[in-house]
């Protein structure tokens, strides 16, 4: 055991996992080219479609890779030289979509978005003739949660293929593929689903399935995943153990009910935000998801310093930022197996750093 195992985890991926997930991870990895494993995969697909409320005829692809591969593979498989792509660029993950389009030489425009959650979409008016819209539902680099309803309305009115990276809001905030007209939904194992990193899933609507490019790459060719997926298999060795963990977690979510799951994240986020009100820390964003709180010290203390002290003195891990926001903000995740008692460890540590008595 190294001291990684002793940390309190409040990062937006990886997140604190459930005991059941840890237990499954402790067993030998079984062989997977058989009916028993196919059944597991098919049940995962069914439950994911249910949770996302995917339109009839939608499918789930299971990619053994981190979330960025899910983003890149989706762009590569669904878009081509006839597209001109609108990318919502509100931070590091929006920029990643821009870089993916650049790398694959796809015509695109990245619109820089600041201080809005796009409830008012007039900033997008000029781009009505785009053929596809790429957005990170929650821009995790700074904690902006976009208004998916208004953005989806804009995409629908202008007949755009609507591709949503929901990696850091799936399970913790409301999302509905059917009513929000989402054609491709990208999710990943190590955020709200609270599993180890390594598995990404792309949910495709029938419209997206019809637009898949002919095979032009091996590992991430969506056609192969769809074909093998029909019998609950993947073209290459999948992250077998993570799929077993996913299976158990999805059963848990479906049994609890997705609304309850979202409510739990909301309660934890609100509890944290309320309990730290007496500290010189201000919420950085007006548009926060339940998944995360981004904080700015208002007393001139450096955010990097707070992140460092939390780790060194209290074994508490929150997420620092890079670049120009390095000293201005740090991020606290509410995703995963959170309880008020667990969050209290972080809250109490922050009070100690500020030499203040909590609740006085
Ligand atoms: C975490 C995250 C990703 C995936 O990042 P990886 O490091 O590739 O797993 C993608 N988009 C968003 C919005 C994220 O929060």
Task: Walk me through what this model shows.
The model has no long low-confidence stretch (mean pLDDT 97). This protein starts with 7 loop residues before the first strand and ends in a 7-residue tail after the last helix. 37% of the residues lie in helices and 16% in strands. It is an alpha/beta fold and 360 residues long. The chain folds into 2 domains: 2-15 and 258-353, Alpha-Beta Complex (Aspartate Aminotransferase, domain 1), CATH 3.90.1150; 19-256, Type I PLP-dependent aspartate aminotransferase-like (Major domain) (Aspartate Aminotransferase, domain 2, 3-Layer(aba) Sandwich). Bound molecules: pyridoxal-5'-phosphate. The site of pyridoxal-5'-phosphate has 12 residues, from helix 3.
List the helices and strands and how they pair.
Blueprint: E1 8-9, H1 19-25, H2 35-51, E2 59-63, H3 67-78, E3 85-89, H4 92-103, E4 108-112, E5 132-136, E6 138-139, E7 144-145, H5 148-157, E8 161-165, E9 184-188, E10 200-204, H6 206-210, H7 222-229, H8 240-256, H9 258-275, E11 281-283, E12 292-297, H10 303-314, E13 316-317, E14 319-320, E15 330-333, H11 340-353
Residues 13, 66-68, 93, 136, 140, 165, 167-168, 188, 191 line the site of pyridoxal-5'-phosphate.
